[in-house]
Amino acid sequence: MKLYRTTNGTYVEQGGTYYSVAGNSWDALVTQDNLHAFLQSVVANGEAAADFAAAQILAPIGTQEVWAAGVTYYRSRSARMEESKSAGGGDFYDRVYSAERPELFFKSTASRVAGPSSQVRIRSDAKWNVPEPELTLLINQRGHIIGYTVGNDMSSRDIEGENPLYLPQAKVYDRSCALGPCILVTPEPLPTTTPIRLEILRQGAAAFSAETTLAELKRTPVSLVEYLFRDNSFPAGAFLMTGTGIVPPDSFTLASGDRIRITIDPIGTLENEVVQGN
Ligand code: DO4
Ligand code: MG
Questions:
Q1: Which CATH superfamily hosts domain 65-276?
Q2: Which atom of ligand 1 is nearest to the CA of 155?
Q3: Is the pTM of this model over 0.85?
Q4: Mean pLDDT within 162-171
């Protein structure tokens, strides 16, 4: 089942039919005892809603914090070792890739998150920028993964590469994070064969595209969540981006007007236009 937050309220979709979900608190919805069972009852007892098509889809977030895991794919480890070589940071990325403790960092507040079909941003003081297509977990306040969405962890590689201590500036700024289009609510883990696809369009033509699968993810989602929730409470739940397995070649940087499409098949496609901050 897919859960959508829209300008007309919340909807659940199953088998191509949309049902309106009563109530207007996203936080109350996602923190209830059993979201999956609740949505099943909405589908079983509700009437098909005709007004979904007229609604604008919003980022599927209330007041949750967005956190992110890093260097969870070999491709991210290699790209980061290369970009930070002259700053002496390469060794840190190698070590964290194989360490027991994962890299986890604070990514975004809800107010900085872009929804589907809206704009993500390039920092005004960055020259080398990329999207990071990431499977993103929705976790309830008890630390249980209750759903999945598509995430874009926009990153400024020149700032991060200059000094690893600049990571928060490379990662956290207005519209540096996009989530959507919906939450796939399922009690089942996603299969490791699940593909993650990135396409970047410039003036309508493909500027870069690549694909990975969850089989390349070095850590399990459950183990990442276990670390995130150690000595850390999330009364409204939290999102956790699980890291990127796709990094464009070093010659590539995003430009204003580019369109970024990230597809994770059982969830959907998250598409955003890039704007340059000034
Ligand atoms: O270590 C820096 C950030 C890593 C990251 O965002 C990723 O691997 O996806
Ligand atoms: Mg990332």
A1: Fumarylacetoacetase-like, C-terminal domain (3.90.850.10)
A2: 6
A3: yes
A4: 96
